[in-house]
Amino acid sequence: MKHCPLFPLNMTLFPGGRIPLQIFEARYIDLVKSCMKAEQGFIVISIKDGHESGNRPELYNIGTYAEIVDWELLPSGLLGITVEGRQRFILSDITEAKDKLLSASVEPIAAEDSHSVPDEYRHLVDILKSLKTNPVIQSLNLNIDYQSATDVSSRLCELLPFNIEDKQSLLELHDPLERLVRVQAILDIMGSDFNIR
Q1: Which part of the chain has CATH 2.30.130.40?
Q2: What is the CATH number of domain 119-193?
Q3: N or C: which end of the chain has fewer CB within 10 A?
Q4: Under 8 Å CB-to-CB from 25, ≥6 apart: which residues?
Q5: Distances (CA, A) of 61 to 88, 89, 103
Q6: In the chain, which residues fall in CATH 1.20.58?
Q7: How confident is the model over 122-180, as pLDDT tens digits?
Q8: What's the sign of the alpha-carbon dihedral 140, 143, 146, 152?
Q9: Is 90 exposed, middle or buried (0-12, 13-18, 19+ CB in 10 A)?
Q10: Which CATH architecture has domain 3-108?
Q11: What pTM, to 2 d.p., does this model score?
């Protein structure tokens, strides 16, 4: 895969994570149809500046290739899909088609080395398990390996209320142990403002 369509969002998707999307713009309806027909995906990329609809936003240059794992027609009449992140990619040469659908040249980023969650960060596993009791999060059917530093750090980055700049910088890290350290540092800064509900 050397060129891939883009789906800009005001959120960040990590490999192994899932995001539900409501599709209403014509360009994305066409994208979803073509992806489902070809059994291919697209790159979910975070927006640096701008909006999900309308004029072309400024994007970060690292995103996650996602595949559609579920779809349904919503009561609103919109198409609802769930996408799952597969692998991170570096983007370059972003182009815009006549229908304003963006695409880019992409280069894969190697999968992270496997590490277990160190004992000093086992409390982060407890936080993740608490988050997973939320019915909305349960509906995503996430498959989480609670022993894996990559799984635990990535799911926390997606599910915790971090700002998009922090989430993107965490996505760009290559070491899941460093990501755990950074997650803890952000939680320390949030302090009493962060509560498990």
Answers
A1: 3-108
A2: 1.20.58
A3: C
A4: 53
A5: 10, 8, 12
A6: 119-193
A7: 999 999 999 999 999 999 999 999 999 999 999 999 999 999 999 999 999 999 999 99
A8: negative
A9: middle
A10: Roll (2.30)
A11: 0.90
